[in-house]
Amino acid sequence: MLRATISAARLRIVCGGSDADLRMTEEIYAIYMQAIDGNDKISVKRRTRLARYFAEFVNNRDYHVRLGQDKFKKEGNFPTGHPGGDVAVWEFKAFQWRLYGGVAEVGGRRCFVGVAVDGSKKQDRADQQLLAIAARRLGSYTEFTPRTEGRGR
Predict the structure, then answer these.
(1) Helical packing angle, 26-36 and 41-59, nearest 10°
(2) What is the tally of structural domains in the chain?
(3) pLDDT tens digits, residue range 19-51?
(4) Are 136 and 85 in contact (CB under 8 A)?
(5) Is 111 within 8 Å of 23 (Cβ atoms)?
(6) Concatenated DSSP letters of 44-85
(7) Is residue 53 part of a domain?
(8) Which residue range forms the structural domain that includes residue 140?
(9) Is residue 5 included in any domain, yes or no?
(10) Domain membership flag for residue 151
(11) Which residue among 21, 53, 88, 113 is least enclosed by CB atoms within 10 Å?
(12) Within a domain: residue 129?
């Protein structure tokens, strides 16, 4: 059964730049704000580093080189729930906190769409179940859904 899809262009732009945007769902944005809102040492470090990482992504075409895998990493391809629809799930990471999402063109611009968070990351290996959830959530956006028309399917 195919699910209805909406455009990721409806999501909040958390960070916009010269080359790209970074968007989040409202639920994930609230979790993100809670993670960076405090004045404790970890919250301040997260806020500073995530702001820097997001700025590198939205302002540079060579963001992969600038960020490296210790800050922005592809976790693999996972099914979206649509036939033939796998999507690459990426993560931004800072101080035991991970933002999972995908990269696609949204509104004519490169965009990271954040759809899941692991707020208490304690081990190196990503939670595979959470990555699968992120992929299914990404599959609810038209930008991450396979288009069959014109492809001879």
Answers:
(1) 130
(2) 1
(3) 999 999 999 999 999 999 999 998 999 999 999
(4) no
(5) yes
(6) HHHHHHHHHHHHHHHH-TTHHHHH-TTTEEEEEEEE-SSTT-
(7) yes
(8) 11-144
(9) no
(10) no
(11) 88
(12) yes
Q: Using CA atoms, how far apart are residues 139 and 134, in angstroms rounded to an integer? A: 9
Supply the DSSP string of 74-142, one letter for each residue. Answer: EEEEEE-SSTT-EEEEEEEE-SS-EEEEEEEEETTEEEEEEEEEETT--SSS--HHHHHHHHHHHTTBG
Q: Please tell me the pTM assigned to this model.
A: 0.89
Establish how many alpha carbons lie within 13 A of residue 78's alpha carbon, considering only the half-sphere containing its beta carbon.
21
Q: What is the pLDDT of residues 119-151, one digit of tens each?
A: 876 666 788 999 999 999 999 999 998 754 333
Q: How far apart are CA 113 and CA 27, in angstroms?
A: 13
